[in-house]
Amino acid sequence: MKDFALMMIGAALVNNVILARFLGLCSFMGVTTRIDTAAGMGLATTFVITVSSMADWAVQHYLLDAYGLGYLRTVTFILVIASAVQFTELTIRKVSPSLFQMLGIYLPLITTNCAVLGVALLLVEGHMSFIGSTLFAFASSLGYSLVMVIFAGLRERLALAQVPRLFAGPPIAFIVASLLAMAFMGFSGISTG
Amino acid sequence: MASNYKTIVKDGLWDNNGVFSMLLGMCPAMAMTTSATNGFGMGVATAVVMAASSLLVAVFRGFITQEVRIPVFILIVAAMVTLVDLAMNAWMHELYKVLGLFIPLIVSNCLPLARLEAFAAKQPALPSFLDGLFMGLGFTIALTVIGAVREITGNGTLFADASLLLGPAFKAIEMRILPANMGVLMMILPPGGFLVTGLLVVVKRMIDLRAGKEIQMGGAHSVA
């Protein structure tokens, strides 16, 4: 139990998907201009990462490992992820039409969010059990959502700040992200101590 | 036609550079640029995938219907990535071990997909191939520059381990710029990646401004 808890904290904070592993930067820079869209995107991505990594675990164990098809991993995983995204899209449209409206174009783009494929591949490398990998995926995506929301909050304030013209837009956002990454490095003592 | 090809080359390498202008493909641009050698290797792998998949999409563009084009593009890119992945595992094993996770992740890199959608889906084979190739080379240059800046400031070296990763012929370009204890560790760590990329975007804007060009404010992020 304690192992799982430590592993989840490590996945969410210490090895944060965005700030330590550099996965999902497109959505990190693209969808974080407002807190509510960033939170919605985080929620949808959390769902996709958790569902698709469960499916990917099954595919890896019962199909790829069982028949020695390891070299097809990239192609199979991207298909599984695309279906998971489609499934999420249908679910959100049914459950919350307003959230569906808000996320709009960004929903299908979760397929090419490298955080989804990245977490799935990390799980394969880690050789974890089904429960372990599901928890790892869930914790990683919670860490992703957390950073998305924090960064969106920072950018809402940044939009009001006076920035030199050369730095306006993406460059200043990168520099703010760099400071945020520095702050998150403070967590790196947790997993070992 | 010749001037057309010139525009493709110029767009890919500088005007529309994937990393510094369009801000696409940021994940490997920051994760794999702890040294110039890593950045170069990552860039070349991406360039091969982009050139090959642009060519394939352009050749088959008559058969790909509008509704299913995105899944087809992704599958074509995934197939090319698998080939590059296997080839690198066989012939460049040291580099393959360093790049690791980020070779399969070329599939979900926004840059190849963006070029397929914006260019290769509408143009004949040769221009598409060149567009993929030069966009990929522009990406390689960007990654090598980010890697070089981070490596020099963080470690004081440039192209360290090039002979180990790329082959013994590259021994000559390994150099030490600053003494060993001058490095700022932070530049190698994640915050340095964000910082250097942000500052290099500013540098590109300054050069464009000097040349009397309009600076690009947004990048392609309103769609990605």
- How many discrete structural domains of chain B? 1
Number of helical segments with 4 or more residues of chain A: 9
Could you give a short account of the major beta sheet of chain A? none
From the structure provided, what is the oligomeric state, counting identical versus distinct chains? heterodimer
What is the residue-averaged pLDDT of chain A? 88
Largest pleated sheet of chain B: 2 strands, antiparallel
Describe the model.
- The complex is a heterodimer of chains A (193) and B (224).
- In chain A, 75% of the residues lie in helices and 0% in strands.
- With 193 residues, chain A is mainly alpha-helical.
- Chain A has one domain.
- The longest helix of chain A has 33 residues.
- Chain B has one domain.
- The C terminus of chain B is likely disordered.
- Chain B has a two-stranded antiparallel ribbon.
- By secondary structure, chain B is mainly alpha-helical.
- In chain B, helix 4 packs across helix 5, helix 4 packs across helix 6 and helix 6 packs antiparallel against helix 7.
- Classes of the chains: A mainly alpha (193), B mainly alpha (224).
- Chains A and B meet through helix 2, helix 4, helix 7 and helix 9 of A and helix 2, helix 4 and helix 10 of B.
Features:
heterodimer, A: 193 residues, mainly alpha, 75% helix, B: mainly alpha, 2% strand, globular
Short description:
The complex is a heterodimer of chains A (193) and B (224). Chain A has 193 residues and is mostly helical.
